[in-house]
Write a structure and sequence with these properties.
32% of the residues lie in helices and 28% in strands. It has helices at 21-30, 51-60, 81-93; strands at 5-8, 17-18, 46-48, 62-67, 70-78, 97-101. The strands form 2 sheets. It has a 4-stranded antiparallel sheet, covered by helices on one side. A two-stranded antiparallel ribbon has the order 4-5. The longest helix is centred in the last third of the chain and has 13 residues, at 81-93.
Length: 102
């Protein structure tokens, strides 16, 4: 089975970015809900990555996760090499809106 790819919807001239199925399951960790000023409606298998948050996570090198068992506390998790590669691709290409294609 081929690895999924991220197709940049807001930058059609940028080549799709191949990711692992593991990272596919982790995209929600980095995704944001588009604000009304972004004028983006997400379709099926689409994600929005707010540029400022993406750059901050890349710069910090960590991800803050909320435990479903303890929503009052967050855990700091170091991003993996593959996650860092994704964030760099998003930042370097100024991509915010993607669709996952299998």
């Amino acid at each position: 089975m081929a690895n999924p790819k991220l197709l940049p919807l807001d930058k059609p001239g940028i080549a799709p970015h191949t990711i692992s199925t593991k990272l596919r399951a982790q995209l929600a960790y980095f995704a944001s809900i588009p604000s009304e000023i972004d004028h983006i409606k997400l379709g099926e298998a689409e994600y929005f990555f707010e540029a400022g948050e993406t750059a901050k996570t890349l710069d910090d090198g960590v991800l803050m996760l909320v435990s479903p068992l303890d929503t009052a506390n967050m855990t700091e998790v170091e991003i993996s090499e593959e996650q860092e590669d994704l964030l760099q691709w998003l930042c370097q290409n100024q991509v915010q809106h993607v669709r996952v294609v299998e």
